[in-house]
Design brief:
single chain, alpha/beta, five-stranded parallel sheet
């Protein structure tokens, strides 16, 4: 069965780049424009992994991650933060909130696919 990845980023063109890389690797992709949109789309859905930006309107990635981890259906879904943020403090906050990996933009699509392959079991 194909695994489903949710890509959460406020940039439509960026979501498209990530989606194409993941689809090429054999994944089904859902998209959301921010944390609030992602939570609404996750209701009743099953995803195997989430790739999420940090800086977004309405609900940022770290708030989304913290909220996600309180939901029984999605508590154990691995999350990869894909962001321009590279400060150690942000990374530490992400790790504390439950992020399994942190990839800094700009990134190589192969780097993302490798991380997804490792975490998406």
């Amino acid at each position: 069965m194909r695994k489903t990845i949710m890509v959460v980023d406020d940039s439509g063109s960026f979501r498209t780049v990530v989606k194409l890389a993941l689809q090429k690797a054999g994944y089904t992709v859902m998209e959301a424009g921010d944390g609030k949109d992602a939570l609404a789309k996750l209701a009743g859905a099953k995803v195997n992994l989430i790739v999420c930006d940090v800086n977004m309107p309405n609900m940022d990635g770290l708030t989304f991650l913290k909220t996600l981890k309180t939901l029984p259906a999605h508590k154990f879904v691995p999350v990869i933060m894909l962001t321009t943020e590279s400060q150690e403090a942000k990374k530490a906050e992400g790790k504390a909130a439950g992020a399994r990996a942190w990839i800094t933009k700009p990134f190589q699509p192969s780097q993302l696919v490798d991380a997804v392959n490792k975490l998406c079991v």
